[in-house]
Recover the amino acids of this structure.
């Protein structure tokens, strides 16, 4: 059993909120540059050049890449041999978010009620996802999620007879409907299987994976490659002005599911796909 | 075509702009998002004044991050314009002409643009750090309680934009994509 003080969690969440919003992960930077090199449509090249300049400015000047500094999605993998001391875990995380969004000059984008609205003023509460794993460490990932892209996400409960073609059509239909709204080039997270809610969570987790990683199952790795290629034949292009680069990455996560169902969730992210991880 | 535009955006100026033009905007613009638009349209419905002069005005759909010490403004890229579709025709009916944002607009907004000679400009979504460089002055003028959504008056120099929908209803989202796809065959 290892004791971990909640204060340490607060400090790390604070730091990760700021760093994730200032510094685009290297894998995402690399994917954008690779797509720029392959883009042959003039207006699209211009947009991608400005996107590269933008994340380079943010990186070197320590400023937010995008003004939508997101809802703070905080993923924790907590070792079952860890004992958290000193404060309640959710409180510790929210205090980290509160401090990070204040000290980092990040936008406060959270309202306290979905219908009656009312900004909470400090970007809390965070969206907290905990998972108990073996060991005595805590792995914390902060993924600030913007809502221009979140709003274009979708979920569908398929009949198993819809098969792989149903999934493929749904991915293309969702990207088509999203069009220019989610700030393309986008990153697409797909979650297949599980239950209604677990499919959606898997789609979000797919966005946290490195953009150049592949699903370990060759069947889904091939599907990732095939669907990214198909998405990039739609012609939507950067910002929707036309071009090849509609998406810079597509990750699929799967789960076992019920004999009667095949849930599929698609979580759309923009080119500012942020995530930063630290292990205690 | 690359064009350098000095605001205000008069009807004559609007007529010279075409979907797909790259423009660099200089002059005074206003910022407003969902909550600010809602308040302004409610005020207009009651016959009250709004806290900006709408004549030939350009409204930027943005909620910037807080300004760091010594800076005019924080990161300031566009938000999704579709959320302002319910309000845009009303704003144009009282004289506002330019809109800066990103994403698709409803047909009724495009119809209002044709009627009132409106122009819809796209700023690059997600390029908030870059766009902030073109904002030279920022002044909070109303609705301070709305935080990032408060109404601000900005002075911009050479703000990099693209005309997405012009006052004849031509739409870069449709034309750009069709043009790209036609070249792939």
């Amino acid at each position: 059993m290892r004791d971990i003080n909640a204060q340490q969690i607060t400090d790390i969440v604070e730091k990760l909120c700021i760093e994730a919003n200032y510094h685009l992960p290297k894998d995402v930077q690399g994917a954008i540059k690779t797509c720029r090199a392959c883009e042959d449509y003039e207006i699209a090249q211009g947009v991608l050049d400005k996107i590269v300049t933008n994340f380079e400015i943010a990186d070197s000047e320590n400023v937010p890449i995008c003004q939508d500094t997101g809802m703070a999605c905080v993923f924790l993998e907590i070792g079952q041999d860890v004992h958290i001391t000193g404060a309640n875990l959710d409180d510790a995380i929210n205090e980290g978010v509160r401090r990070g969004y204040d000290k980092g000059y990040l936008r406060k984008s959270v309202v306290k009620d979905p219908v009656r609205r009312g900004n909470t003023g400090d970007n809390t509460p965070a969206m907290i996802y905990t998972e108990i794993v073996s060991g005595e460490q805590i792995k914390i990932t902060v993924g600030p999620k913007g809502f221009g892209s979140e709003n274009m996400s979708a979920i569908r409960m398929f009949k198993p007879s819809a098969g792989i073609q149903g999934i493929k059509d749904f991915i293309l239909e969702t990207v088509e409907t999203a069009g220019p709204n989610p700030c393309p080039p986008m990153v697409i997270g797909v979650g297949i299987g599980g239950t209604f809610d677990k499919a959606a969570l898997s789609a979000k987790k797919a966005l946290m994976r490195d953009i150049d990683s592949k699903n370990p199952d060759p069947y889904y790795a091939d599907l990732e490659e095939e669907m990214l290629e198909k998405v990039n034949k739609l012609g939507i292009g950067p910002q929707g002005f036309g071009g090849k680069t509609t998406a810079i990455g597509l990750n699929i996560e799967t789960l076992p599911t019920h004999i009667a169902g095949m849930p599929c969730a698609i979580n759309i992210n923009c080119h500012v796909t942020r995530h930063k991880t630290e292990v205690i | 075509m690359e064009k350098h535009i000095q605001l205000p955006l008069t009807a004559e100026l609007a007529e010279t702009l075409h979907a797909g033009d790259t423009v660099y905007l200089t002059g005074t613009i206003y910022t407003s998002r969902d909550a600010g638009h809602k308040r302004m349209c409610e005020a207009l419905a009651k016959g009250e004044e709004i806290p900006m002069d709408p004549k030939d005005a350009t409204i930027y759909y943005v909620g910037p991050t807080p300004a760091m010490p010594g800076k005019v403004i924080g990161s300031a890229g566009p938000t999704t314009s579709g959320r302002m579709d319910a309000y845009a025709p009303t704003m144009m009916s009282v004289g506002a002409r330019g809109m800066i944002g990103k994403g698709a607009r409803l047909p009724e907004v495009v119809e209002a643009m044709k009627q009132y000679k409106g122009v819809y400009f796209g700023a690059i979504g997600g390029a908030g750090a870059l766009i902030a460089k073109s904002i030279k002055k920022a002044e909070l003028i109303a609705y301070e309680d709305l935080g990032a959504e408060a109404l601000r008056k900005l002075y911009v120099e050479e703000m990099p934009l693209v005309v997405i929908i012009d006052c004849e209803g031509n739409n870069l989202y449709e034309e750009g994509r069709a043009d790209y796809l036609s070249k792939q065959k």
Residues 148-273 of chain A form one domain. The beta strands of chain A are 2-5, 71-79, 82-85, 127-133, 138-145, 154-158, 186-194, 247-257, 262-269, 276-279. Chain A has a mean pLDDT of 96. The helical segments of chain A are 6-22, 26-38, 42-61, 89-103, 147-150, 163-178, 196-208, 218-231.
